[in-house]
Structure formats: C-alpha cells, structure tokens
Amino acid sequence: MNILVTGGAGFIGSHLSEALLERGHSVHSVDDLSTGSIKNIEHLKGSRGYAYTIGSIFDKALLAELVDWSDAVYHLAAAVGVRLIVEDPVRTIETNVHGTEMVLKLSSKKKRRVIVASTSEVYGKGPGGGPFSEGADLVFGATDRARWAYACSKAIDEFLALAYWRQKAVPTTVVRLFNTVGPRQTGQYGMVVPSLVTQAIRGDDMTVYGTGRQTRCFALVSEVVVAMTDLLECKPSLGKVVNLGSSEEVSILQLAKRIKTMTNSRSKIVFVPYDKAYEAGFEDMQRRVPDLSRARKLVGFRPKATLDDILKSVIDHIRAQRP
Ligand code: UDP
C-alpha cells in the first residue's frame, strides 16, 4: 500500500515508517519538524519506497495531494509532551483539533483508511488509575489547568474519527498509546525516561516530580508500532478505539533508581514539586495502567520487552548520541 504518515519524523512516526517499509509498503512522511527531527529519518532516506516532505498538515494543497496518493493514512502529527502542553496550550489545542479535522475531511473525500494516534492522557483522572479498558469513562479536571487541554483535544480527535466512521463510513481506527518509549525519544519535551537517562549519564541531578510514588507502564516503541501496522488491515478494528502499551507498572522513583544503577551514575535523585516542574496547581495522574485485552484479541498484541530491555535500549541510544 501507499501510506501517508503525518508526524513521520517524530519519535513514534519514524519507528512506524520503518515498520511499514519492512512490510513492503511505500511510505510518505510529512512533518513540520516542530517536535520531530530530520535526524529521526536520516537512516530511512534512500530506502526503497520511502519519501518525505518537510511541511505542515495545515498546507491544504500539500495534504490533499498526499492523501490522494495514499491508500491509508496514519495521523500522528500532534502537539505532544505534558511540558509543551502546559507552556503552549494554544498550539496544542489548535494543532490537535484542526490537524485531525483536516486529515479526516480529506481522507473522507477519498474514503481512505485512517488510523488516528491518540493518548492514554484521555483517561485523565479515571478512578484507581486503571487498568483502563477502552470503554472506561474519561475524567478531566477544570479548564484552567492547561494539562487537560491535551486530553480534551485528543478526545475531540477521537470523537471525530469515530463520527467519520459512523456517519460517513470512513474506515477509521483510534489507537490510544500509553507511555511509549525507546531510542530516538528526546527528553526535550519533558518525557521522563529520556530525561532521567540523560541526567544520569551526564551526572546531573535526576529530577523526580512530586513524591515519585506515581506509577506508569512503559512500552517499547518497536513493539507498539508493529501492533499499529497489524491494525491496518484488521477489519474488526474499524470504528474502534484500541489501547496499546505495556502492563508492567513501575513508580517513577523506582524508575529513577533503576536508571541510576543501570548507568552506574553518580547523580543524585532529587524531588521537584509539581508546581516548580510544570505550573501552580498542576495535577498529575497517580497511576495509569492499560487493559490490553482488545489489542490482544484483535491483533495478538503481547508485548515481550521488559522494563530493563526498554531502559537498556534508551541508555545505549543516548550514549551513542554523545560526542
Ligand atoms: N516526571 C518526572 N521527572 C521528569 C519528567 C517527568 O518525575 O523529569 C514524571 C511526571 O510528573 C509523570 C511521569 O514522570 O508523573 C511520566 O511523565 P511523562 O511526561 O513522561 O509522561 P505522562 O505520563 O505524564 O504523559
């Protein structure tokens, strides 16, 4: 198939493009390099069936041309990272809502297969922190807390993708990605694993926000993108939301300690209050665990990488980047 990947030079987009090429598809990435990087796709340049455009999904003529060329669209272009969202809420809301609207509108005209990337942020402050199945209620905080703008903007994306299926028979699927990590993810936008690994390798203080007792489940990007490619031709996934992630839960303090040990680092682990790390009144999720049974049923998704495997891949990558 000819496949368009929006946000294709991003961390997940670049891994997804790789997985699609490995399956023999032709891939065209479009990325405005706002949070993506040309370095992420350097190794793909010159691969058979690969092309890219540095441009915006808001360039209607460009997007129309690329959707026209494609048989399927993976829509990953979005404003991501909790820090970016808190610092630049206007960009977050506009990029996420209007970008998805443009992609779905154009794909609808041509009846293209569309897979929209969403996020586990949409579960918000759901009770108990999971395990969240796709039908769980979404629970957000007040609109004066910037963090929730991200969750709400992605929830609107999901509503829209599902509405296009229901009302216009556009074959859409939404993938809700839980904390996905691996090589090429940057700590620049505040994501915890690359941030802590970089600090540990440099010998800087390792910053644990809040008490460090909050937990997350970290999934390896290469396993997540295989499931995303498997969903492409999975008919029962049409008009559905599918969680992708890992169920190995770890507290952020344990994570920091593990990274410190694995890197043999002399760094100190320091606690930073949320209002210093983000903004006054910042609300964090104390726990976020996915229920992965739908993905297992649909595409046999069973992530195998352990947290140590994942951390090792990130540590090796960040070490290799250093001059
Ligand atoms: N976090 C941290 N130190 C950092 C960056 C993040 O303790 O340098 C915490 C953050 O407050 C959250 C967890 O790590 O509780 C995961 O953060 P991330 O931004 O990676 O993903 P989120 O789950 O918040 O989307």
Which keywords apply here?
323 residues, alpha/beta, Rossmann fold, 7-stranded parallel β-sheet, two-stranded parallel sheet, 11 helices, 13 strands, globular, binds uridine-5'-diphosphate
Map the helices and strands.
Layout: E1 2-6, H1 11-22, E2 26-31, E3 50-54, H2 60-69, E4 72-75, H3 82-87, H4 89-110, E5 113-119, H5 147-168, E6 172-177, E7 180-181, H6 192-202, E8 206-209, E9 215-217, E10 219-220, H7 221-231, E11 240-244, E12 249-251, H8 252-262, E13 269-272, H9 274-277, H10 293-299, H11 307-321
Parallel strand pairs: 1-2, 1-4, 2-3, 4-5, 5-6, 6-11, 7-10, 8-13
Antiparallel strand pairs: 9-12
Helix pairs in contact: 1-7, 2-4, 4-5, 6-8, 6-11
What does this entry look like structurally?
It is a single chain. The protein has 323 residues and is an alpha/beta fold. The chain has a domain at 2-180 and 219-246 and 289-303: Rossmann fold (3-Layer(aba) Sandwich). It is built from 11 helices and 13 strands. The strands form 4 sheets. A 7-stranded parallel beta sheet has the order 3-2-1-4-5-6-11, with helices on both faces. It has a two-stranded parallel sheet with strand order 7-10. Strand 5, helix 5 and strand 6 (172-177) form a beta-alpha-beta unit. Helix 6 (192-202) packs across helix 11. The protein starts with a strand and ends with a helix. The model has no long low-confidence stretch (mean pLDDT 96).
Q: Which ligands, by name, code or SMILES, are bound?
A: uridine-5'-diphosphate
Percent helix range: 40-55%
Highest-level CATH class of the domain at 2-180 and 219-246 and 289-303: Alpha Beta
Strand proportion = 15-25%
Count of strand segments: 13
Biggest β-sheet: strands ordered side by side in the sheet: 3-2-1-4-5-6-11
Largest β sheet strand count, sense and barrel closure: 7 strands, parallel
Order of helices and strands: EHEEHEHHEHEEHEEEHEEHEHHH
**CATH architecture title of the domain at 2-180 and 219-246 and 289-303:** 3-Layer(aba) Sandwich
Structural class: alpha/beta
The DSSP helix count reads: 11
Quaternary state reads: single chain
Query: Going by CATH, what is the homologous superfamily of the domain at 2-180 and 219-246 and 289-303?
Result: NAD(P)-binding Rossmann-like Domain
Q: What characteristic shape results from the CA principal axes?
A: globular
C-alpha termini separation: 39 Å
Summed over residues and divided by their number, the pLDDT gives a mean of: 96
CATH-assigned fold name of the domain at 2-180 and 219-246 and 289-303: Rossmann fold
